[in-house]
Structure formats: C-alpha cells, structure tokens
C-alpha cells in the first residue's frame, strides 16, 4: 500500500479491477490506419458498452494513448483533434469520449507501462486485474499485456473489444496471449465485474 494516500491531493478511487482503453482516441490517419480503422470501428460499440458496465460497478477506466510522437502533447488536445470531422476516427472518438472521472495516461512507446505513470496509478487504485481493450491487438495491446503479465496482474482481453489490421493477425495475437500470458479472452458480455473484483 502506498505511504502517501492522496496522490498530492488527487486521490483516485479504490478499484481492484481497471479497464484500459488503448489507442482508441485517434485520428486513424497514420500509416496502415485505413486498414485498422474498420476493425476498430467494429469494436468501438462493444468497448462503450463494457465501459458503461464497468462504471456501474465502480471499476476504474483508464485511457492509454499514444502521444502522437510529440512529448508536449496533451490528451485533451488529442481528443479534440480526433473528434474533428476532418479525420477518419472522429466517430470512434466521440463514442468513446472520456468522462470527468476517467483516468488517462500518455505513452510514447508500444506498452502502456513503458516510462509512463500507469504503474503508480494502478498501485494507488489497488488494481489486481486488468481488462485490456483497444488497438492494435498484435502491437500495443500485446506489449501492454506482456508487461502486465510480468507484473502479476490477472488479465482479461475480451476478443470482441480488440482489433488488428486483419482477422488472421488479430486471432494469432489473441491465441498467443491466451496460451502464454494466461489471458481470459471471453467476449465482453461474459465478464462478471462482481466476480472479477473478488
């Protein structure tokens, strides 16, 4: 348990489970973004529904996002940009827009843990179980899952809430995370937040 209970005046909720939404607040205007976008669009509603259920169960929601290669970038600016009708990802960004009580972490590399504040946040929350959602399954979701596994988190990666550039790649990444990282990849509607919080 951390010695300092209040995170310098910004005490987080206590939540043994945390829902991570990885790289879904995006313009999808990057290389291969056109390939990834239809698969990301297909999972967005599932993530939105899972998030609603998580919030009803008082489960912490953490947005983890690339910093678009700019160390000075600001998540609110990214959200505003991604919601602009001039970019491919605007409907996803509007559907999944964070609420005031949600947390966010900016990352510069593939893993949500690498040189970010995520470890500190999860420690303050008291999280033991992570539910990973978002894109891409074989890149940022996979790297984050690897780091979470090495930190002894229990992992859920609902297969209807992650996306890659094609189905074959997506399925291969899920199979790897199930077999090697012991991730539970049941569909999102089968996740029981009461059981996972025990």
Describe the protein in words.
The protein has 198 residues and is α/β, with parallel strands linked by helices. It has a single domain, classed as 3-Layer(aba) Sandwich (Rossmann fold), CATH 3.40.50. Helix content is 39%, strand content 15%. The protein is built from seven helices and six strands. The protein has helices at 33-56, 75-82, 90-95, 118-125, 137-150, 167-179, 193-196, and strands spanning 17-22, 60-66, 103-107, 129-135, 154-156, 162-163. Strands 1, 2, 3, 4, 5 and 6 form a six-stranded parallel beta sheet that branches. Strand 4 (129-135), helix 5 and strand 5 (154-156) form a beta-alpha-beta unit. The longest helix is centred in the N-terminal third of the chain and has 24 residues, at 33-56. The two termini are 18 Å apart.
Strands, helices and their partners?
Blueprint lengths: L16 E6 L10 H24 L3 E7 L8 H8 L7 H6 L7 E5 L10 H8 L3 E7 L1 H14 L3 E3 L5 E2 L3 H13 L13 H4 L2
Parallel strand pairs: 1-2, 1-4, 2-3, 4-5, 4-6
Helix pairs in contact: 5-6
Provide a brief overview of the structure.
The chain is α/β, with parallel strands linked by helices. The chain contains 7 helices and 6 strands, in the order βαβααβαβαββαα. The chain has helices at residues 33-56, 75-82, 90-95, 118-125, 137-150, 167-179, 193-196, and strands spanning 17-22, 60-66, 103-107, 129-135, 154-156, 162-163.
């Amino acid at each position: 348990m951390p010695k300092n209970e209040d995170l310098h005046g910004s005490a987080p909720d206590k939540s043994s489970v945390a829902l991570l939404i990885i790289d879904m607040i995006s313009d999808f205007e990057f290389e291969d973004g056109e390939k990834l976008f239809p698969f990301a669009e297909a999972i967005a509603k599932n993530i939105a529904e899972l998030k609603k259920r998580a919030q009803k169960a008082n489960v912490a929601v953490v947005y983890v996002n690339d910093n678009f290669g700019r160390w000075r970038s600001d998540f609110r600016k990214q959200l505003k940009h991604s919601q602009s009708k001039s970019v491919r990802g605007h409907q996803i960004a509007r559907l999944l827009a964070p609420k005031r009580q949600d947390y966010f972490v900016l990352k510069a590399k593939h893993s949500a843990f690498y040189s970010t504040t995520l470890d500190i946040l999860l420690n303050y929350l008291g999280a033991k179980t992570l539910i990973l959602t978002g894109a891409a399954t074989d890149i940022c979701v996979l790297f984050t899952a690897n780091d979470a596994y090495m930190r002894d988190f229990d992992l859920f990666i609902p297969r209807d809430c992650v996306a890659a550039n094609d189905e074959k790649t997506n399925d291969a990444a899920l199979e790897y995370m199930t077999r090697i990282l012991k991730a539970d990849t049941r569909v999102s509607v089968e996740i029981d937040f009461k059981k996972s919080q025990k």
